[in-house]
Amino acid sequence: MSKPQIKALSADELRQALVEMGEKPFRAGPILKWLHTPVVSFDEMTDQSKALRARLAERFELTVPGLVRRQQSKVDGTVKYLWQMREGDLVESVLMRYEHGNTVCVSTQVGCRMGCKFCASGLLGLRRNLSAGEILDQVLFAQKDCGQKIHNIVLMGTGEPLDNYENVLKFLHLVSSPGGIHIGQRHISLSTSGLADKIEKLAAENLQITLSVSLHAPDNDSRNRIMPVNRSFPIERLMQACRYYFDTTGRRISYEYAMAHGVSDRPWQAERLAALLRGRPGHVNLIPLNRVKESPLQPSSREAARRFQQILEKNGVTVTVRRRLGPDIDAACGQLRRRTLEEGDRK
Ligand code: SAH
Ligand code: SF4
Question: How many CB atoms lie within 10 A of CB 190?
Fold first, then answer.
């Protein structure tokens, strides 16, 4: 039987576990501090007794992701990591350097079961959920690798965060708790493909994170074609959940929109999108679609993208166009893992 992962414990659970071991609960503080650094062995916790370190090692698993691949962009310094978690599960994270600080994009699942047609992460379905500790590990080990502080986290790697709700929630509390790495919730964004029921659940958690909703199409016909989740939660239902999220948390929502040639970039769709967002505090993030080999979807032409943006702006929608980081390394998240798995198959 596998041992519980110590990094997946909340501060309270760690205290509880120490008490059960006959230890003093106050030891949880310094141990948690260690667990939010990239330690690879309990023996590194030198301010704890040798005996306690040995007992912890006996009782708990200390997860350590193995670095399988690392690619760095020569253009902008973006670094893409491929980690090996337990049982050979491959997971990607990306380190981006913005003016407002270093940002890590983390994965929340090994694979994804949402099946979006433009996405490399979902091609092989879902293998398993990552634990809160394994999501945290991606931040800790990216920070170790770059030797600089991480300021922001985006949950936009492989996986649907709200399909791994409990672990992701735990991660959000862990990573923002003052006793650990302490990245404030206002520096964290969570992106979802639109699980309306979970968005409403999340609204009630009283978090200060930013919610990003991957909209990608303003009408049900087009969205059904590219995002199967839309059949469970059509646009009206999703927008209702977004309204509830804003009303409950007071946090503005950001809507992700990847323009696909002939599918989601037509002028009437820009008008429809503007109408959908009228009276809603939030903004649209237009993304150039990354081509994925297995998908027939193509990115919009420069002209179509510009026209789309102009229509939104004319209608008073706040629009940002996301810069493409790391254009010379496998750009879309999920592609590096996919390629490595393919190479593995050929061997
Ligand atoms: N599962 C969550 C978060 C991970 S995906 C979600 O879907 O929101 C992170 C973002 O990348 C999402 O907005 C997703 O729609 C987008 N994305 C996935 N594949 C893409 C591609 N080929 N080109 C552009 N954006 C893509
Ligand atoms: Fe999953 Fe997000 Fe990719 Fe859709 S876009 S398959 S939800 S990771």
Answer: 22
